[in-house]
Every structure is written in C-alpha cells, then in structure tokens.
C-alpha cells in the first residue's frame, strides 16, 4: 500500500450528524476518506441500514456504541456488528475481562462463520468527561491517569486490539502495552483549525509521530466549507511533515 493509501485508512471521520441523509452526503463528498465513525446519535436514529449503506458505498464503518453489558449480551452485539460488516467497534473496558474476552471470541467466531472481516475491537478506558473527583465519587480509587493505564493493560490481556485515548496518553500506553497494541485518538486539530471544545489537542502529524495508529477527526473536516478539500489538506499536512508512516 502506498503512503497516501495507508494514511487514508488511518484518518477516521466522525459522522456526528443526526440523519442518514446528512451522513450519506458527507460520505459522498469525502471521496478519499475510507473509515467513518457512527456514534450513538446517528445509530439510534438510523439503525443498521446506515451501516449497510456505508458498506455499499465502499466505506468502512466504525461503530462507536461503547458496549457495556454482561458477556453474553456483548458477545451477541459483536456478532451482529460483524454480520453488518463493521470494520471497528468500541466497548467499555470497565465491563471487565470476561466481557472483553467474550467479545473477542465472538468477533473471531462470527467472522470465520460468515467469511466477513473480523472487526477491530477497541476499548474505551475512562471517559474524558470524568475527572479525578468524579472517579472517586463513583467508587474508583485511582486517578484518571492510573485508571486509564490499568484498563488499557486489562484490555490487552483480554484480547482487545487496542484502545481509544487522548493524544497525550499515546506514548505511555504504547510503552506499557507494546507497539502492536492499537491506539486511536480523537482531540486532533490540524494547525489551521480551531480547537472548539477540545482542550488537550495535537495536530495529526504530532499524534502520528507519537505512535497513534488511527486519528478520529470530526468538525475540522465535516464542518469545513469543503470537507473534501479539508481532508486533502490534512493528508498533505501529514505527508509534508516527513513522518515515516
Ligand atoms: O469534531 P471533533 O474532531 O472534536 O470530533 C471528535 C470525535 O471524537 C467526536 O465523535 C467525539 O465524540 C469523539 N471523542 C472525543 N473525545 C473523547 C472520546 C471521543 O472527542 N475522549
């Protein structure tokens, strides 16, 4: 695969819109983007038909529903997602080892059974909306930083492929979990984009330079006058940074 194609797979577009019409318009406009993140709002509104439509358009759906339930139920959801052609999905690592291991087994088995690709399973550690004080209130004894690391290691031991984390946690997670363990990071802002409500941001090249395997980018691309131009600009910014991708 060429460098540009590898990069196209690494930049995930967050489809934070409420309707299939808006989502499809963005996916059509973003001709060169391959992976699209569908979250709770869009999936709750439009359901799995949207995933089928994405696959039909030659796009790869990233289903960000953050599964968190008993192992049997999460395994069932992962089997359904696999049948729907989901490329990546998220689950809460605080669901525990048994839940994550059941999800990993389900993805493997359903992929073998159906011949569809096995989805990449990504753990959510601590929501960035939670601070140390709130963690204590819900009964966790550790700081956010310790808890993130602890859950990342547990995710790896349970058979997940990687975790979602802040760009500032990439290096420590890679150090603890190894280079093969995937790290996906939002909080990305190209040098030319506004930070909006994101606080601890990095540019795409900085995050990739620190070892991120995938970047999730929403508004700097989807909110641009021309999302297509903005996507190409992000690609050019990374290609021009001299990074060895
Ligand atoms: O528009 P923006 O680039 O800020 O979008 C980032 C995407 O990543 C959104 O879908 C947001 O929900 C998600 N995300 C995040 N921070 C986290 C976890 C997920 O921004 N800690």
Quick one: CATH class? Alpha Beta
Order of helices and strands: HEHEHHEHEHEHHEHEHEHH
Count up the domains.
1
Number of strands: 8
Helix content: 40-55%
General description of the model:
- With 245 residues, the protein is of the alpha/beta class.
- It has one domain: Alpha-Beta Barrel (TIM Barrel), CATH 3.20.20.70.
- The protein contains twelve helices and eight strands.
- The protein has helices at residues 3-10, 20-29, 40-46, 49-56, 71-83, 97-114, 132-137, 144-157, 170-177, 204-209, 219-222, 227-239, and strands at residues 11-14, 35-38, 60-67, 88-92, 120-124, 162-164, 182-185, 214-217.
- It has an eight-stranded parallel beta barrel with strand order 1-2-3-4-5-6-7-8, surrounded by seven helices.
- Helix 5 packs parallel to helix 6 and helix 8 (144-157) crosses helix 9.
- The longest helix has 18 residues, at 97-114.
- The termini are close together.
- Residues 14, 16, 39, 128, 164, 186-187, 198, 216-219 line the site of cytidine-5'-monophosphate.
